Backbone:
């Protein structure tokens, strides 16, 4: 896996793109709002039938196999947007199509340091390239060989707290971040525009191949975000909650009748695509 070497490009919008066998596949788009909000969208995934939920993890839970979104969430026939606002409100929505009822009060952004969200996927071929008219700054992750399951973990920190021994031209140099467990991990750094309310913050995206949770070869997309304060998230004896999103959704119509949907009535589809 080849990682880009730019240290902290600043832009309002970023496309996270993997290149496999010479073909680009947009995994997600990250948007920095003018009020400091952070948005994550998945406009290029081939499926739009999904499950959105507020999940709780306790000490006896096994991540990620035991996360049953159908038990705690509702279905949607749209590719929803994840929002994390400055006050900590985190939710899924889609303007005029989806009710933002899958929500929770996560860590406010002025206090949020560390794990912000995780994207996990299988089958990069199921993600289309961005449209030619899309002007978002591209962040390219080149995949070498066959990677079945890819995980991208996003950490958030302050630029003013970054310590580096890099000097001179950074081109061609990999970037590494030392995480809380002490390991040094390569990744991609991005930042909002300088004039942003959180202009001193940056996101560090760590892509890695992970072991598939099953032998199923079907493409999927999973997103986890909206976490508690770091200390609270680690205290599983008390339980910690967060938001989960999964595409595709098996037995979409059956589940919709059983657990309901977050789609507005005029935008409900029998066979979402």
Residues:
């Amino acid at each position: 896996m080849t990682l880009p070497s730019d240290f902290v490009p600043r832009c309002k919008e970023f496309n996270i793109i993997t290149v496999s066998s010479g073909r680009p596949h947009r995994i997600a788009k990250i948007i920095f709002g003018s009020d400091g909000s952070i948005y994550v969208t998945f406009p290029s995934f081939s499926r739009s039938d999904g499950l959105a939920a507020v999940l709780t993890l306790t000490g006896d839970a096994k991540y990620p196999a035991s996360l049953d979104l159908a038990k705690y969430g509702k279905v949607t026939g749209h590719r929803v947007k994840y929002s994390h606002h400055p006050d900590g409100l985190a939710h899924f929505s889609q303007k005029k199509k989806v009710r933002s009822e899958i929500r929770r009060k996560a860590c406010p952004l002025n206090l949020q340091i560390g794990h912000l969200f995780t994207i996990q996927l299988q089958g990069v071929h199921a993600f289309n390239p961005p449209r030619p008219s899309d002007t978002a700054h591209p962040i390219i992750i080149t995949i070498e060989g066959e990677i079945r399951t890819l995980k991208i973990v996003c950490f958030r920190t302050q630029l003013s707290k970054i310590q580096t021994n890099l000097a001179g031209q950074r081109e061609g140099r990999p970037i590494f971040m030392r995480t809380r467990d002490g390991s040094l991990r390569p990744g991609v750094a991005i930042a909002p525009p300088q004039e942003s309310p959180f202009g001193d913050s940056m996101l560090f995206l760590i892509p890695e191949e992970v072991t598939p949770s099953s032998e199923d070869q079907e493409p999927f997309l999973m997103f986890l975000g909206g976490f508690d304060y770091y200390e609270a998230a680690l205290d599983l004896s008390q339980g910690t909650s967060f938001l989960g999103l999964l595409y595709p959704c098996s037995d979409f119509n059956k589940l919709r009748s059983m657990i309901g949907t977050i789609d507005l009535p005029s935008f409900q589809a029998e066979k979402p695509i």
